[in-house]
Amino acid sequence: MAKASSPTAGGAPRRITVAIVEDDRLIREGLCTLINGAKGYCCTGAYRSMEDALARPWSEIPLVALVDIGLPGMSGVEGLPILREKYPDVALLMLTIYDDDQRIFDALCAGACGYLLKKTPPDKLLESLAEVLAGGAPMSPEIARRVLRLFREIRLPQTAGARLTPHELRLLKLLVEGHNYQSAAAELGVSFSTINFHMQNIYGKLQVHSKSEAVAKALRHRLVR
User: Which terminal residue of the chain, N or C, has fewer Cβ atoms less than 10 Å from its own Cβ?
Assistant: First the structure.
């Protein structure tokens, strides 16, 4: 797994290096120009699709990757776990036109460190790149409002989390960490069918219908740590 360079070296600030995954050529080139034209920022690579970004090792590992969602082929959300595994030290920041609840939560659950809309002003975009490296989670204001609203409105039945067994909680934690059913089975030393059996129980107790919904609910309600 490749590592990104630290934002500081010997106490001195270093340039903020950024990779871009964006299929629209004009937007991609505009982002490159913006980043390369800002003092202390540098675009290390620009890719038109997730497949293109994953096809070969990056010549320079950036500190941040700006990732679109609506890409041809593999979507940005689908590619996030792969990017996170391949480049674990790179902060993944979504830059997209989509502001619907499902994509927001799918992206955050898949490992995004922040979520910006493409109408974000250039100066705010540059600030967000620095913010995410300082440990922040930058979001466009309307996205932040949606997230807060959803956290207020979505309520897990009080007994659902309590009814999960220790084994089910451990399995749920593995899924939150990015495991699939096969790797979770290997980690727990059980068969795939056993994992599937436990997942059906988890779905029923959490009142969800898919792995992504289970992971999102576990994160929203802090069922695992």
Answer: C
Please determine, looking at this structure, whether the domain spanning 8-151 carries the CATH number 3.40.50.2300.
yes
- Tokens (6 digits) for 45: 């690579």
Is 97 strand, coil or helix? coil
Judged against a pLDDT cut of 90, whether residue 93 lies above it is answered with: yes
The pTM for the full model equals 0.65
The CATH number of 158-220, from 3.30.565.10, 3.40.640.10, 1.10.10.10, 3.40.50.12780, is 1.10.10.10
Tell me the pLDDT band of 60, cut-offs 50, 70 and 90.
very high
Whether 44 contacts 17, CB under 8 Å: yes
C-alpha distance from residue 172 to each of 80, 203, 213, 223 (Å)? 19, 10, 11, 9
What backbone torsions phi and psi does residue 156 show, to the nearest 5 degrees?
-85, 130
C-alpha span between 181 and 193 (Å, rounded): 9
Task: DSSP letter for 9, please.
Answer: E
What's phi and psi for 120, nearest 5 deg? -55, 130
